[in-house]
Structure to design on (224 residues):
């Protein structure tokens, strides 16, 4: 079955670079896009960016200058890297699968909590 | 594109039928999707493309609308429906979510 699992450090310091990995199973990254969504504690959802089945990417302009999304299709992994972290980057980070050719998310990972604090 | 959800909180009694609103700042055709998020859980999609049903989602959930005004309807709210509901548009970049409507027990 389709599964997505996020992994990465839970605690980061301001100005550091965050690296998260989303390991997927049950589908191919060349068939479905995968996006990253952030949720500050107690707040709403913010789409950060997506890497599409063909390998192209789209980013939220609010973080575009700091964000990079890439993948390793052979390992079924999608990567998020975001530099110059600030406390407001604190939150739960989800990776989620786009239904093939669609803009909505049909499967989500369980999320990983990232705290940015000195 | 900004999505405005209303109300922010809705207090209802189980068994009531309700409507949640999502309004877009510009026309998004039917590129609007609804999600439910329970506490400490990941979101799950309820409705795609404004009104299309999702396999495995109870039939009491339905959606309608196009252009800028959209509605999620829940026919006879069940106890497990008390959670937060988000709309999301995929008409243009960047994709955006609404701020959510919290459905709580009266």
């Amino acid at each position: 079955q389709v599964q997505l699992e996020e992994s990465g450090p839970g605690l980061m310091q301001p100005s550091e670079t965050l690296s998260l990995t989303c390991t997927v199973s049950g589908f191919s990254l060349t068939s479905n896009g995968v996006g990253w969504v952030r949720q500050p504690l107690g707040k709403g959802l913010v789409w950060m960016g997506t890497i599409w089945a063909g390998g192209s990417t789209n980013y939220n302009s609010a973080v575009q200058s700091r964000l990079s999304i890439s993948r390793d299709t052979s390992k079924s992994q999608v990567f998020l890297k975001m530099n110059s972290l600030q406390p407001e980057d604190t939150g739960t980070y989800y990776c989620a699968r786009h239904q093939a050719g669609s803009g909505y998310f049909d499967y989500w990972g369980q999320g990983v909590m990232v705290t940015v604090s000195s | 594109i900004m999505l405005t959800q209303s109300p922010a909180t809705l207090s209802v009694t189980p068994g009531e039928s309700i409507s949640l609103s999502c309004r877009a700042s510009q026309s998004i055709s039917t590129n609007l999707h609804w999600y439910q998020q329970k506490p400490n859980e990941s979101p799950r999609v309820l409705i795609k493309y404004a009104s299309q049903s999702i396999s495995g989602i109870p039939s009491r959930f339905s959606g309608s609308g196009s252009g800028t005004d959209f509605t999620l309807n829940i026919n006879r709210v069940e106890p497990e429906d008390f959670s937060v509901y988000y709309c999301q548009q995929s008409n243009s970049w960047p994709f955006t979510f609404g701020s959510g409507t919290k459905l709580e027990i009266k």
Summary: Chain B touches chain A through 24 residues (CB under 8 Å). Residues 16 and 89 of chain B are 28 Å apart (CA to CA). The longest strand of chain B covers residues 18-24.
